[in-house]
Amino acid sequence: MSGDVRPLPIHPWSALTPERGAMLRAAKAALDVPFLIQPSPAASGSPGRVLGWGQVPPFLSESVIIPAGLVDDADTIFRALRHLLAAPAGSPGILTEEQWMSAAFGGPVTYVGEEDWPPPAVNPWDRPREPVAFR
Q1: Dihedral (Cα; 28, 31, 32, 35), 10-degree rounding
Q2: CB neighbours of 16 closer than 8 A, spacing ≥ 6?
Q3: pLDDT digits over 20-67, tens only?
Q4: What does the DSSP assignment read for 17-77?
Q5: Which domain of life does this protein belong to (predicted)?
């Protein structure tokens, strides 16, 4: 295993009890991935997918949600972690940003493209201007 450590954003952070943390460690140990994971509180802009522990995050994110009734089931935690770490974008079981926005806005939402963030700095004085004549 390399020294590569990846953050694992969790929402809500308070749901990660010591017992659930132990199940999460056991699930990670059972997966064949060449990196370590570091659980951390999820926030808007967290890197990677968010693991929703019985709840959908209240901010825009790509997430894998553990159903509320199964938050203490070791097999469900294993499958959610495997899906979160290894499934390609758009796989069933991943709550995409489009799906999150569709639920929030109450209608279908489709991404048409991604913008660089933060946006490139634009100096308003660098744009061409019409000469101004005073009379």
Answers
A1: -20
A2: 10, 24, 39, 53
A3: 999 999 999 999 888 999 999 999 988 889 999 999 999 988 999 999
A4: -HHHHHHHHHHHHHS--SSEEEEEE--TT-SS-EEEESS--SSS--EEEE-GGGTT-HHHH
A5: Bacteria
With contact defined as beta carbons under 8 Å apart, do 74 and 37 qualify? Answer: no
Token pair, residue 88, equals 């390609």
For the stretch 89-114, pLDDT in tens is: 778 888 888 888 888 888 888 877 76
How far, in Å, CA of 119 to CA of 28, rounded? 36
- CA angle (110, 113, 119) in 5-degree steps: 130
DSSP H or E run through 11: strand 5-11
pTM of the model: 0.76
Alpha-carbon distances of 75 from 23, 112, 123, rounded to whole Å: 9, 36, 54
